[in-house]
Amino acid sequence: MSGAYGLDLAEVSKANAPQVTDVPAAPGSTNELNEKKLYSPDDSSQSQSRENSLIDPDGKEYPTPEEVTTLRRVCGTVPWASYTIGFIELCERFSYYGTTIVFVNFIQQPLPEGSKTGAGGTDGQSGALGMGQRASTGLTTFNSMWAYFMPLVGAYMADQYWGRYKTIQISIFIAIVGHIILIIATLPQVIANPDGSIACFSVGIIIFGIGTGGFKPNISPLIAEQYESKHPRQYIKVNKSGERVIVDPTMTVSRIYMYFYLMINIGALAGQIGMVYAEKYVGFWLSFVLPTCLFLCCPTVMWLMRNKYARRPPTGSVLTKALKLWGLAMKGRWSLNPVKTAKNMRSDDFWESVKPSRLGTAKPEWMTFDDVWVDEVRRGFKACTVFLWIPLFWLAYNQMLTNMISQAATMELHGAPNDLINNIDPIALIIFIPICDLFLYPGLERIGIRFTPLKKIAWGFGLSSASMIAAAVTQHYIYKLGACGNHANGELPNGDPCPPAPINVW
Q1: ∠ at Cα 179 (143, 264), nearest 5°?
Q2: 497 pairs with which residues across the strands?
Q3: What does pTM read for this prediction?
Q4: Cβ atoms < 10 Å from Cβ of 478
Q5: C-alpha atoms less than 13 angstroms from C-alpha of 302 in its C-beta half-sphere
Q6: What's the CA gap between 485 and 482, in Å, rounded?
Q7: What is the 3-state secondary structure (H, E, C) of 103-123?
Q8: Is the pLDDT of residue 14 over 70?
Q9: DSSP secondary-structure letter at 125?
Q10: Using the 8-state DSSP alphabet, how is residue 491 labeled?
Q11: Whole-number percent of the chain with pLDDT over 90
Q12: How far out from the chain centre does Cα 342 lie?
C-alpha cells in the first residue's frame, strides 16, 4: 500500500548479487563492518572446502571467495525486535489509511438529510461538506504530495541532528496533534459550519503530514538495522542435512522488508475497511477517533523497547555533501542547450574530475571524504534514474484514493460503502506477498530465472497501465449507460441526485 513505502531498493537490489567485496583479501585482516580479527583454521582434519575459511573469535565462519560463488544462499533468522517495529508500522498505517480513506466523501459529498455526523446509513451516501469532486481531489492530492515530500525533511533531520529513533518519537507526537485537529474538524458541531470545518481540516492534514514525513523515512531503515547490527556480513551455516550454505544478510533484509510491507498492508486494510463502515453507520468523527487510538500504541511500544533497539547516532546528512559534490562537478558544464548539458553530465570525467586525489590542495573544506565515496555517490545518482518513472506509477496508483472512489459512487454498490472498493488492493497484496516470497521467486530461481528488482518494477508498470485502461473503459460505460451522461455526479433536471449507472461495482 505504501511506497513505500519503506522498501529500500538498494538493499533489495544487493540481495540479487554476490557480495564478493565483503570477503577480506587474506586471513588475519580486519573486517570493516564488525571490526573483528579473522583467522584461518589450522586443523589439518578440516575438509578441503574449509582450508581457506575465515573464522572470527566467536567461532562464526565466513565464506571464502570460492564459496561465495558456489554455495547456496539462505535467509537468516529475523530478530524479534524487528517484529515489534513491524507492529509499530502496522499501527501507523492503520491510522494513516483509516483516516485518509474517508477524506473524499468528507469533502465531496453533502451532509445526508437528517444526519449531523455525516453517516449515510445502509442506502444513503455518507458526506459532510459537499464541496464537490474538484475540491476533494485537490485536497487529497495535496495530502499525498505533502506526505511524500516531508520525508525528505524527516530523513535530513534524522541523519544530521536527532538520529532515527528520536526523530520517529518526535514525529509521532506531531502526528498525534494532527490527528486531534482532524477529529475536531469532524465533530457534528463543527461540520455544521463547513467553512470552519474545512479550515480546521486543512490545518490538520498539514500537521499530520509533517508527522508522517518524519516517521516514514526512518522506520524502514530502523527495522533493517536490527539485523544488520548483529550480522553485518555473510557467514557459513551447516544445515541438518550437512549442506554448507551462506546466510546472506541482504537476502534476510529483503525478506524483512517484504514482510514489513505485508504488515503495512494488513494495517492499511484493517484501517480502511473498519473506518468506511464507521463513517457510513456512525459518522466521520468515529472514523478519525479510532485510528488515533491505535496510533497511540506506537509511542508506547517505542518507549518500552527503547533499550532493546539497535540505534545508530546521527552521522551527518550525506545528501548535502552529495549535492555539493554534484554542483562542483557541474561547474563549466552548464549550457543553454539542455541536450548539451545532459551530454556534459554523461562525460567520462564528470565524477573523476572532482575526486579528492585529482583536486589535491584545491579541494574545498567540506570535502572530507575519499575517492571511494565519490564512486558511491556516482552509483547513487545513476541508481536514481530508476526513480524518474516512479511519479508515473503513483499518478496511476493514487487514483484508487481519489477518482476511483468517486467513480464507485456512480455505480451500483448494493449497500457497500463506495470507499470500500479500493481495499481489494491490500487484500491482493496480503495474499500474493507470501506466495511470491515462498513459492514464485524461489521457484523461478531454481529453474535459472532471476526475477531481479528491475524486472519486478517493469512488470508492475505494465500491470498498473492495464488497470488504468480498465478504469477508463469502465468510466466510458458509466457515461454511456448513466442517466446523466457525462455528469455522473450531477443532478437530474428536477434537482434530484443522478442515480447510479446500471453497472455493478463488483
Answers
A1: 70
A2: 491
A3: 0.71
A4: 20
A5: 24
A6: 5
A7: HHHHHHCECCCCCCCCCCCCC
A8: no
A9: P
A10: B
A11: 35
A12: 30
